[in-house]
Specification:
75 residues; alpha+beta; globular
Length: 75
Amino acid sequence: MAIRHLNQIELAARWNISPRTLERWRWLGEGPVFIKMGGCVVYRLEDVEAYEQAQARQSTCETAGMDPKMVGTAS
């Protein structure tokens, strides 16, 4: 079975965000796991789906899956 990959443009379109947001997340160490092959960044579909599942919430007050450094910090 071949592993399906999404490039930055495809993932940005899937999530309706800008490609720059994905770039910023990579720089900050956030977002889904990515692979960099010779200057090209790709995301394995299984990693994207796992990240999406980890973001699922029942309530806006849930913090599961969030970066512990960000929980309880004022903006």
